[in-house]
């Protein structure tokens, strides 16, 4: 080992701009110690940091200083323990200077410490909608020293998710169903603490495509992870190809792997009927659903599976392949179709979200237009997204080489021309050729 000097490392740490060197061996020992403690996550180990350690006992802070036994004190020859003034031992050494800039006191609350409740506050409001819950949050600020008759702190923690859910257009029946589930869970009525188990949390979202089922599933996942009902903020959306393999025996492994990745969070399967075939026996599908059914029970405490799709199709396929699945999905939420007025509101919201605007269009005229064309928007929100894309393209053609003030300001002509393109590109079922040939 050479006795090569290194100045670049020490110069970086020396706040006094004094070029002090440490030999290569000392630097290597120090660097190894730092790396080992980082990898072993011992940054709070006092024997490593030598930092005074602060903890709370009866609301008073006590300090422990074991710097004399730390790594840096043991290696007294190290530059870390040298000061810039050898005649004043109290002068800060190089490590204490670095430590001051890079570390903070660790405060650990004493497990015995309890906040004394000095006041009580009774909240007595009839809850019929998410608006009522949000009203409680708005009118009741949470305070640590106040005892409430409800878990107000948890409600404040999920305020963002409640606002997001409530702001979704329509789906009033769905919102009330989620509210019922939330109130049940937040009171911990689903738990059997003596047996250390809980009710099933697995949920079905009935409804057609384009009604926001994925967004709702994500909100549910985030909300329950914040409440501690789910231990992790994990959300995975799985398709048939991610659960079913090409060979028998591998499907169970693939399905189990996906389930393991979702433990503590949410596994979401949209159009879950794609996992099964109601017309014939499918060994691959059965293997997948048998594995899933077993996991629904084995991990009832730490997993929430949400499936979505049309009610009839799910009953004829998904629940038909394995009869045990039906009893494990105890929460069933129905998402009603959007009205023409709600479709119009979704369309307007999407325009607003991208910071475009609607030119002065008569509201009554626009609503009648959506009423007339509603039957062509079978995928609801998804179709509104597609319609807006074609409307923007039509708008681009109209304003080309015109005043820039017209940019991103949609008029009724843009909507109608965009709709024409939407209809031309719309997928329609064609009659088989042999059907036409019958009459030739």
Automatic annotation (TrEMBL):
Q: Keywords, A to Z? A: ATP-binding, Nucleotide-binding
Query: What sequence ranges are listed for the domain AAA+ ATPase?
Result: 199-327
Task: Drop me one GO molecular function for this one.
Answer: ATP hydrolysis activity
Q: Which family does it belong to?
A: Belongs to the CbxX/CfxQ family.
What is this protein's name? AAA+ ATPase domain-containing protein
């Amino acid at each position: 080992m050479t006795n090569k000097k290194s100045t670049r490392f020490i110069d970086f740490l020396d706040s006094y701009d004094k070029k002090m060197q440490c030999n290569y061996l000392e630097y290597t020992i120090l660097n190894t110690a730092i790396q080992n403690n980082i990898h072993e996550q011992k940054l709070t180990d006092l024997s490593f940091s030598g930092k005074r350690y602060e903890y709370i006992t009866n609301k008073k802070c006590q300090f422990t200083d074991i710097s004399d036994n730390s790594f840096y004190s043991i290696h007294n020859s190290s530059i870390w323990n040298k000061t810039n003034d050898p005649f004043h031992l109290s002068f800060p050494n190089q490590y204490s200077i670095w430590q001051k800039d890079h570390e903070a006191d660790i405060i650990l609350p004493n497990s015995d410490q309890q906040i004394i409740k000095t006041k009580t506050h009774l909240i007595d409001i009839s809850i019929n909608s998410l608006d009522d819950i949000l009203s409680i949050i708005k009118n009741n600020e949470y305070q640590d020293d106040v005892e409430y008759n409800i878990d107000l702190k948890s409600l404040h923690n999920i305020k963002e998710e409640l606002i997001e859910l409530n702001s979704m257009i329509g789906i009033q029946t769905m919102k009330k169903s989620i509210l019922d589930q939330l109130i049940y869970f937040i009171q911990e009525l689903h738990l059997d603490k003596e047996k250390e188990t809980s009710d099933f949390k697995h949920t079905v979202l009935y409804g057609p495509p384009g009604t926001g089922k994925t967004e709702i599933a994500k909100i549910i996942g985030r909300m329950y992870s914040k409440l501690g009902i789910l231990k992790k903020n994990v959300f995975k959306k799985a398709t048939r190809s991610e659960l079913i393999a090409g060979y028998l025996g591998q499907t169970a492994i693939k399905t189990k792997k996906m389930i393991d990745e979702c433990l503590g969070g949410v596994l979401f399967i949209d159009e879950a009927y794609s996992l099964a075939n109601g017309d014939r026996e499918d060994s691959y599908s059965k293997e997948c659903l048998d594995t899933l059914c077993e996991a629904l029970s084995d991990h009832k405490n730490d997993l929430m599976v949400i499936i979505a799709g049309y009610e009839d199709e799910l009953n004829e396929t998904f629940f038909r392949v394995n009869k045990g699945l039906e009893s494990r999905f105890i929460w069933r939420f129905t998402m009603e179709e959007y009205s023409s007025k709600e479709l119009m509101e979704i369309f307007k919201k999407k325009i607003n979200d991208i910071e475009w605007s609607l030119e002065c269009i008569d509201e009554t005229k626009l609503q009648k237009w959506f009423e007339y064309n509603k039957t062509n928007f079978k995928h609801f929100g998804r179709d509104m997204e597609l319609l807006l894309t074609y409307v923007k393209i039509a708008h681009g053609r109209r304003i080309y080489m015109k005043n820039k003030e017209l940019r991103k300001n949609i008029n009724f002509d843009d909507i109608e021309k965009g709709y024409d393109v939407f209809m031309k590109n719309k997928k329609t079922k064609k009659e088989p050729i042999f059907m036409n040939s019958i009459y030739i």
